[in-house]
Amino acid sequence: AAPHRADLVVFGGTGDLAMRKLIPALYHCDRDGLLAPETRIIAMSRGGLADSDFRGKVDAEVRGAVPVEDPQVWARFLGRLHHITVDVSAEGGHAAHPGWGELAALLSGHEDRDRIFYLASPPMTFGPFCRDARAAGVVTPRSRVVLEKPIGRDLLSAQRINDEVGEIFAEPQTYRIDHYLGKETVQNLLVLRFANAFLEPVWNSLWIDHVQISVTETVGTPGRRGYYDHAGALRDMVQNHLLQLLCLVAMEPPARNDRESIRDEKVKVLQALRPISGTEADRFTVRGQYTEGPGMPGYLDEPASTPPTAASRRVETFAAIRAEVRNWRWAGVPFYLRTGKRLPTRRSEIVVQFKDVPHSIFPGGSPNRLVLRLQPSEGIHLHLMAKEPGTGEVALRPVPLSLDFASAFASRVPDAYERLLLDVMAGNPTLFMRRDEVEAAWRWIDPILATWEASGMPPEPYPAGSAGPASAHELLARSGRAWHEEE
Ligand code: BG6
Description:
Layout: E1 6-11, H1 16-31, E2 40-45, H2 51-61, H3 71-79, E3 81-85, H4 98-107, E4 114-119, H5 126-135, E5 143-147, H6 155-168, E6 174-176, H7 184-194, E7 208-216, H8 225-228, H9 232-250, H10 259-272, H11 278-284, E8 285-291, H12 310-314, E9 318-324, E10 334-340, E11 347-354, E12 369-375, E13 379-387, E14 396-404, H13 405-408, H14 416-426, H15 435-455, E15 460-463, H16 470-477
Parallel strand pairs: 1-2, 1-4, 2-3, 4-5, 5-6, 7-10, 8-15
Antiparallel strand pairs: 7-11, 8-9, 9-10, 11-12, 12-13, 13-14
Bound molecules: 6-O-phosphono-beta-D-glucopyranose (BG6).
The site of 6-O-phosphono-beta-D-glucopyranose has 4 residues, from loops.
């Protein structure tokens, strides 16, 4: 592919996401020769940094985290970096801030390049940023905007943000990022499903008992309370990452691999989700919050700049849901979703559990399972029953037929953000969420949130480092199922 000629403006450019994900991803793109010599990365923040300060910061904080084999490539990368100070709380509206004039001057004369505004900032800044950018005259026909998740905190706020952004950027210029869609295994799920013939005949309620989509994390939320108190696991992870995975598992085969066909099919899945509210929310959802565990503080005692509030006590750091897709293919198949912080292992996976054999002639078998692992090591594992070697009675044991990406393809697995940033530069929105998708997801999430909020009950406590609230186990145990926990 030809290297990309672009000006990338990152709002929130010195924040956690930029420093941990975006800058390293862009460095990798540069190292791989995918950025044209003139491509620039312009961070905007309140930081008051000169270009040289920002380059120094990236040198100090990022260099150690990426493999720098060639110091010249690193120096070239640092040379692409610029910093512009804008104060979003400046008197007289943002556009009045001198930073906008500086940005306009820096960009002027480069209207022929792709211009990308990456908003790595809280969702309430999206609308104001876009308006200011237009007022500053920096939005060109070749401009695109990238919006980080979550878009809003419920359907209404999401619609408002989409409207505000939509006044400046048309839908095809708007890239709503969900970095899970850039993960190798997630893209491979589409290939697995739609480039192989053997799965499709069994990919339905006749053969599949249930699906588990589980993203467990060992990290807590130190230093993130300001964001997390008003987000929680449902908004931070389920509304976007987990529902996107569910869509890819459940969608019908699209007719084409193009930007609209795949997204059209995903929306249909979201629209088919059975609504959960009221007493059903009590039965089919679980929310928890971690308390102190061995060597780990509870959520309320995590280091933060402000003391915990009523919102901190209410927010869930763990969520589990029994979802259902009401259509011909999936009727009656539970989709169990689970995510949480401070759990014993960091693992993201989709587990498709098949039904048991109709009649078993051997003792001790267990149903087949297809495990699509996104983390820690990306791979696909199909658990088949096999005979334990030996001369005595036939003994069965599940053995995995495994595809480990790192060893099957002796190449580096790129980070999700690399792939997605390159897609934005190439103008390919297939792996980004369309407005109707985001809104359909909120439409399903809202009644769950409303029920939780109305209940007045705090989330169920679980000790940090434990397997989560007991009710999450019961959610499956009452139908004789269990979360897939093996290594
Ligand atoms: C982010 C969430 O979107 O995804 C974080 O805001 C979470 O809370 C992260 O930790 C998980 O991403 P990954 O790629 O590490 O699974």
